[in-house]
Amino acid sequence: MEAVLAANRALYEALERGDLEAVEEVWLGAADADDKGGVVCVHPGWPVLRGRAQVTRSYMLIMMNTEYIQFFLTDVEAEVHGDVALVTCTENILSGGEAEEEGELGPLVGGKVVSTNLFRRTPAGWKLWSHHGSPVLTSGDEEDED
């Protein structure tokens, strides 16, 4: 169980560092997942992405357009069934945009995403097979019902 949770944390730590190679390392490798399917990823508001090439490209785009990101994971639950593990968690995200002036920090924005991460046991350890993130609406996102 601890190895699965460590693999889950590795994804978010790699994203925080902006380390695309480490993100790729978390996902199933080419031997376990081909570009015709294999791995699946759904970022909030995105269509379904299938295959390592599409998934890697999506993370590259996110990293290129995000100056700062930090994840505070809560409600982390894991289940292991043979060679498959399911991790659910809430991603409490703090991210920053581009600063108006060089040398300054950009505005920080908070968000919340509920994620389901599905892992497969491989000879190289637990690897991410599928990630699905759904945004959580907060009271500030709801329309007034008056």
Please characterize this protein's 3D structure.
The chain has 146 residues and is an alpha+beta fold. It has a single domain (2-136), classed as Nuclear Transport Factor 2, Chain: A (Roll), CATH 3.10.450. It is 25% helix and 40% strand. It contains three helices and six strands. The protein has helices spanning 2-17, 20-26, 52-64; strands at 40-42, 49-50, 68-81, 84-96, 108-122, 125-135. The protein has a six-stranded mixed sheet, with helices on one face. Strand 3 (68-81) and strand 4 form a beta hairpin. The protein is globular and about 50 Å long. The protein starts with a helix and ends in an 11-residue tail after the last strand.
Number of helices: 3
Terminal CA distance: 48 Å
The CATH topology comes to Nuclear Transport Factor 2, Chain: A
Number of domains: 1
The count of strands amounts to 6
Q: Quaternary arrangement of the chains shown?
A: single chain
Structural class: alpha+beta
User: Shape from CA axes?
Assistant: globular
Helix content: 10-25%
CATH architecture classification name: Roll
Q: Within the largest sheet, what's the order of strands?
A: 2-1-6-5-4-3
Element string (H = helix, E = strand): HHEEHEEEE
Mean pLDDT: 90
> Regarding CATH, which class?
Alpha Beta
Give a quick account of the main beta sheet: strands, pairing sense, barrel closure: 6 strands, mixed
Low-confidence stretches: none
